[in-house]
UniProtKB/TrEMBL annotation, chains A, B:
Protein name as it appears in the record: Pyridoxal phosphate-dependent aminotransferase
Pathway: Amino-acid biosynthesis
Keyword Transferase found: yes
InterPro entries per record: Aminotrans_II_pyridoxalP_BS, Aminotransferase_I/II_large, HistidinolP_aminotransfase, PyrdxlP-dep_Trfase, PyrdxlP-dep_Trfase_major, PyrdxlP-dep_Trfase_small
Residue ranges the record marks as coiled coil: none
SUPFAM superfamilies: PLP-dependent transferases
Assigned keywords, A-Z: Aminotransferase, Pyridoxal phosphate, Transferase
Residue ranges occupied by any Aminotransferase class I/classII large domain in the UniProt entry: 38-354
């Protein structure tokens, strides 16, 4: 397959295959239909009806680009969060923002600290910019704050990534620990605090906005993809000092936001009552998943997210056979990628019908192993 | 405004201000309301009703990420274009794809050839990756193919950008000239052939897909933002050899596409009858704009796009005063950024009501100068 002969050395060296397999690809490749889509930490409870209404209303306006300054959405988020609009940068989902942050900080060869088995898309961006991943093992299924800090210091790393609550394990640290970690970081190291799951965790797991807002080396990322139920809308945002936030403007795709997604985010943000209901449903669904796991002899781990990691008690091959077996029954789930996390499977919360499919399929799968 | 202290030297050196001012920002900053939005080469005739229907239908599905492989859309485009799905890469608008291509090819200091006064967003991406812009003046308001080729050879440039039909001048070359240019390019130079406006030009201005599909150093970019009337949906695509197309997978934001936009693009693509009608309306509107210009003593240039560049006969300051003056009447237009192109203003086609606003405002503005 002839390709252009003069891509940069970095691009030429990157693998052509990438570790992203969506449920649609599984359906196509295996000839199976997904009945319960509870693998990608999407939110089957869906967005606020007001957001859906806003999407339809905005459909007729899609001939216009969105406002490249994202003025309204930044204002609304600032008001919601209790910070200034200048503290916020908007992007096409957190994935896009993560890519920009890596690009801002990483020249080829520079070290980037993250946990071993943490978010693969972040690692993808690090590789794409030639960074050198320095990984720290999880400790008791939580990201190891002391270990991450030690690695940053040892390597003089300019970038560390940390998710709280964590994906893929669902674990979390209290706000005090997070703030202490941020304070202890050398100012020459930028911390990405990925809070994609902050809405579904205990209140005391999320630092107050004011706690970190003055620290130029902290960027907190949040999204409308999880609790707000709008993964397909591609709206994420970053919170940092105005000076740090402004760096996004230097390289971001200014006209990258889709107009309907922005309208939906504005409407969803206004409907906090709906969000509260969904968070309750997510908590109930977590408990339901935990009961299903326990009644099948598996061990659910505590979770502050919209998914539950379940310890299946053996190795990655065993967990993989459960993931594959469930898919045979139309139940799409995922699992962590590396040991020892990969003794677990990871099941996203979802509506009753999804839970019924899971409840029916899991014992059959386990029996067949 | 304190910022993180250790951004890369490249990022630190980039300007914090960027040359993108949307109509919403003009409204906010000048306290004016846009009545005729005919400045950003959007398409006020709007998308197919089937696309709008598809957007509403997809709204309830926004809790799901879009298929990261964009399988369906690639299949549909391949079928429409008469190539293979492997020849296509999908992105969040052409702007996003342009950024990726620059990243694939440009290490800091490498030369990038483009026309002086061509697409600013491309230049933004070149600057963002540290490329060195080598510009060639327009010749008789067309991009200078011979001059571009000569610059590529002289500089041993790995990348050349060329839009056909052209923005901001609306001019074009015949397909034969484009193909001859591509054939004459050194294989060590990647050509971006930006065909954002191909649907609105004469048929013989666009090379057949088959004419360039085997050339690994050609990437053609197209969009649903212009003739298809979906600028706010953020759906663009690139056409190249499978080997070159695959390079996008190494670095693109795999889950970056918004689900509603993809659904809308699929529906719009099916409604070619509507597209034909819109293209007719765009042609009529071009003629209308030309008549308005002429009746005010200005000289419209021939256009193959959804806008008309109008020679106002003097310098950039004069054209700027017309742009600013029209905005006082709620008529948002733009103008080329550099001399000698900036003797012109640039007015996008649009529905009758927009044309009426323009027709009424222009003589008043000219009289007041």
């Amino acid at each position: 397959m002839p390709a252009f002969s003069r891509f940069t050395p970095l691009i030429s060296a990157l693998p052509a295959t990438v570790p992203f397999v969506g449920p649609e690809a599984i359906e196509r490749n295996r000839g199976l239909a997904v009945k319960a889509r509870i693998g990608a930490n999407e939110n089957g409870f869906g967005p606020s009806p007001l957001a859906i209404e806003a999407m339809c209303a905005a459909a007729g306006e899609t001939w216009k680009y969105a406002d490249p300054e994202n003025f309204e959405l930044k204002q609304a988020l600032a008001s919601h969060l209790g910070c200034a609009a200048d503290n916020i940068a908007i992007g096409e989902g957190v994935d896009s923002l993560l890519g920009l942050v890596v690009r801002m900080v990483i020249d080829p060869g520079l070290p980037v600290v993250t946990s071993f088995g943490a978010y693969p898309t972040f690692n993808f961006h690090v590789a794409g910019h030639g960074g050198r991943l320095v990984t720290v093992p999880y400790l008791d299924d939580r990201e190891n704050l002391e270990g991450l800090l030690e690695a940053v210091r040892r390597e003089n790393a300019p970038l560390v990534y940390f998710a709280n609550p964590d994906n893929p394990m669902g674990s979390w640290w209290d706000a005090d620990n997070i703030v202490a970690f941020a304070r202890a970081l050398p100012e020459s190291c930028l911390m990405i605090l990925d809070e994609a799951y902050c809405e579904t965790g205990p209140a005391d797991a999320t630092p107050a906005i004011s706690a970190l807002i003055d620290q130029p080396n902290v960027i907190r990322t949040r999204t409308f993809s999880k609790a707000y139920g709008m993964a397909g809308s591609r709206v994420g945002y970053a919170i940092s000092t105005p000076g740090t936030a402004q760096a996004f403007d230097k390289i971001r795709n200014h006209f990258g936001m889709n107009r309907i997604g922005v309208a939906a985010a504005l409407a969803a943000l206004k409907d906090q009552a709906y969000l509260s209901q969904v968070i309750d449903r997510i908590r109930d669904s977590r408990e339901r998943i935990a009961r299903v796991a326990e009644s099948n002899g598996l061990k659910p781990l505590p979770s502050a997210t919209n998914f539950v990691a379940i310890d299946c008690g053996r190795d990655g091959a065993h967990a993989r056979s459960i993931v594959d077996g469930l898919m045979e029954h139309g139940v799409f789930i995922r699992m962590p990628g590396v040991a020892p996390l990969n003794r677990c499977i990871r099941i996203s919360t979802g509506p009753e019908s999804d839970m019924v499919f899971l409840e029916e399929a899991l014992p059959k799968v386990l029996k067949n192993l």
